[in-house]
């Protein structure tokens, strides 16, 4: 019954992945973004990108209508060079390329015997429909005295513009309570916002989590889903904290998240890596490191590097990776005891990695497919995955285990954009 209702909900919402079909782009070393037909792997079109894009593929965004955005990351606190220089982002609107001004602000003023420093970085996001840009700005106001940070007030500002950055329309404005910087560093003691948005472009939601970076391990305070309803954006608190979001359904009702290892200080394996699907008030575990690999005695961590829900929401595919390497020694964990059987089991598992695992997204997730020596790109359809093997792209049928191989060679998965 749960599966039936989910299928009905997807049909009513209109899954764009199903309606339009997936689109595939590859970023070439030449600085060109090449679109391929996922059904035949034939070249469809080519777009010339800024030279910097090849060096920073993580700063590239592509939506399903074929628009592209290159915006190098700028984080708080803002460096002196970022504060002094003007910033522009590059956008391909589907027809022509243009540049848009990016707001990066740093202001300082006397506040009694203290110095008040206000900083803001506006990060642009493509919209799913291609009609406008979303801007999400993280803001921080710090009180300082003689180089020591005393308190901070962090906030979030969201607005939308046209594709030229004009016609600003305010959507969200929120501030966290003032926080005392107990260690003299606000990053270590005060929460700020971490944003996740759909890679296909923002349509009706984005996710925000309050995070304290901390000295060694992060602390997660609260998570919210900002949703559009009738043209108005408002936050809805989520019952569970989101740590590392990997994917979400088209309307944000189902979220795939990773629970990373809490390791620090030179150690890799100090807790249990997990990957969860949270939806309909339920949490389902689709990856559990210690249950699968039983590796608690050794300093080798197994984790999901990425994960994607199928377009119908009934399955989840993951790339399983490890901090261990086949030809290198495996040392004991901080509290580990020598266990030859466990060591042998770990070495055997490493022979298959990286690997893709596909599981059902139901109350009792079970494995549907396992592909060793492969990296997941995404779902072409409900039954086909786009995968990377030996630097070549292939379409892998989850139901039959067959492949449609291509001659499309890529450097790594970060240079492939499947929308």
Descriptive key words:
four-stranded antiparallel sheet, six-stranded antiparallel sheet, mainly beta, 2 domains
What's the SSE blueprint?
Layout: H1 2-13, H2 16-20, E1 24-27, E2 32-36, E3 43-48, H3 52-55, E4 60-62, E5 68-70, H4 80-84, E6 87-92, E7 97-102, E8 104-111, E9 114-126, E10 133-145, E11 148-161, E12 169-175, E13 179-180, H5 186-189, E14 192-196, E15 205-212, E16 219-229, E17 232-237, E18 244-248, E19 254-259, E20 274-279, E21 282-288, H6 289-293, E22 302-309, E23 315-322, H7 340-350, E24 355-360, E25 367-372, E26 375-379, E27 384-389, E28 392-397, E29 403-409, E30 416-418
Antiparallel strand pairs: 1-2, 1-30, 2-3, 4-5, 5-6, 6-7, 8-9, 9-10, 10-11, 11-12, 11-13, 14-15, 15-16, 16-17, 18-19, 19-20, 20-21, 22-23, 23-24, 24-25, 26-27, 27-28, 28-29
Tell me the strand percentage band. Answer: over 45%
Strand count, sense and barrel status of the largest sheet are: 6 strands, antiparallel
- Class by SSE composition: mainly beta
Count of strand segments: 30
Determine Rg (CA atoms, Å).
23 Å
Average residue-wise pLDDT: 93
Query: Could you say how many structural domains there are in total?
Result: 2
